[in-house]
Fold this protein.
Amino acid sequence: MIKKLTFLALIAGFGYMLWTGLAKYNAAESLNRISSYYAQDGLEEVGAANLVTAVVVTYRGLDTLGEVSILFLTASILGFFLVSGKGPKIPLQDSSEILKTASKLLEPIILLFGIYVFINGHLTPGGGFQGGAILASALILAYLANPKEGINKSIFRITESISGVVFILIGILGIVLAGGFLDNRIIPVGSIGDLISAGIIPIIYIFVGMKVGAELTSIVTNLKHSPKNNVE
Amino acid sequence: METNLNIILAIVIGVLALVFAIIAIYHKKLSVAIIASGAVSLMASILFLLLSAPDVAMTEAAIGSGLSVIIFFYALSKIRKQHD
């Protein structure tokens, strides 16, 4: 009884906190200084038709680097804990005929869509992170359909490491050749709306996409390969 | 007119998301709970799309309702095989 009352009091307190925040909230009528700068000068300065990409990769590129490294840390910690133990492996079962046939049809389409999402990241909504997640889902579908065929895990490790290093190298090149870390004007910006435009953004997004795809796939492969007595 | 429709749609989707969330917490079968939690993410991604944030909506749909559901199912099947 006391436990339930404490819970109720906690929930009521939390609700009151949220309510006071909501009561004081009024939507901003105009953009503040920094967002109006992005909206007015961002298109010309970065040359990306999708302004969100301009903010994510160029103006706030350091945050994106942080996000990617958090994901890398998660994937490597999972790999460390899941694969390190030894013991009998769980026997793998064959998947159903429906899944096998459907995956053969869907895999190329999903892969192609993922690649489209991160190559067109500077033109249409989407980008490296989203495209990488879509790529990973296609690879995981392949895993689910053919559980006995393993993809060599070192491919993911190598892709991930190379992509991460290239991302940082491009950022440092920005310091040397242009305005600062991850500045996209190392190569000419080009005309807005072309596939090859917005300077270095498409190249960064290709590597971010490969990195995220490899990391997310390696999480699932580690789950699959971990020994039986290791999940308790 | 169009904004009114959008608001009604947003309210319907928000209520649906709440219903799925309650199912995810209280349903006895774990597999149903996992699917319901994926549906919460799907509703959230539609809401993001209505609020004109397609980039966030794509992330939410791909990771929230795609990958995390698959990873949960992987873990669930592992636990079940251990108990056999």
